[in-house]
Specification:
This protein is an alpha+beta fold. It has four helices and seven strands. The chain has a single domain, classed as Cystine-knot cytokines (Cystine Knot Cytokines, subunit B), CATH 2.10.90. InterPro entries: Cystine-knot_cytokine, Spaetzle, Spz/Toll_ligand-like.
Length: 212
């Protein structure tokens, strides 16, 4: 006999529109990049002057099961996420002399660091593009004091460039890797949905690939 496990479902709360808020159609194009994304060059924002704090707070207050949806490890660093490396050492990585060119001096000199230079953040996004290409507001402490959503992101500084310190006889390049993450979210174009879990594609690693 098959042992089939069912996933519990919860009723979707009904939310009155907060403060009789009316959203302009221009603001409600979920695929239009917000100002914080610098004309769409960023896929997530760490600061957002247009963050709808009141609306998010209102939706949280009307959601009786929000704590069932929430999970986070607030204190994240190399100390608990990278084996054999301290957060202090990671912060001191310096790639200022490397420019992605195998035959430049900067490819061979420099101190400790990853073979593919990257920018590592322990970030708390406030707005981000979901897996469907739509912008969502991410629930953070500014709207829900004491609660955060933290993600470790790692972005290649020179995607497609040769790996640092490898001899030219190796055909190598730095590849950007991604991971899908779930975060509590709010859709400013559809506030009646309240708080829900959405999926986001975030940069997770910069890996060196050597061709055969």
């Amino acid at each position: 006999m098959l042992n089939i496990k069912t996933v519990p479902t919860y009723p979707q709360p009904a939310y009155p529109t907060p403060y009789n808020q009316k959203y302009e159609s221009e603001y409600c194009d979920s695929r239009k990049a917000p100002k914080c994304s610098k004309n769409g060059t960023l896929t997530f924002c760490l600061q957002d002057s247009e963050y709808p704090e009141k609306e998010v707070k209102y939706a949280i207050d009307y959601d009786p099961i929000i704590l069932k949806k929430y999970a986070d490890v607030a204190e994240q660093s190399a100390d608990n996420l990278v084996d054999g490396l301290t957060s202090l050492a990671e912060k001191q990585f310096d790639y200022s002399e490397y420019h992605g060119n195998t035959f430049e001096k900067g490819n061979w000199v420099g101190g400790e660091g990853y073979i593919c230079p990257s920018d590592v953040l322990y970030a708390r996004p406030v707005r981000a593009i979901n897996a469907e290409g739509e912008w969502r507001v991410v629930v953070q402490e500014m709207a829900w004091p004491g609660y955060t959503q933290t993600q470790r992101t790692e972005t290649c500084l020179f995607p497609g460039s040769s790996c640092r310190t490898l001899a030219p006889c190796y055909q190598s390049k730095c590849l950007q890797k991604y991971v899908y993450q779930r975060m509590l979210s709010f859709d400013p174009c559809d506030p009646q949905k309240g708080i829900f879990i959405d999926i986001y594609k975030l940069p997770s690693a910069c890996s060196c690939h050597i061709s055969a």
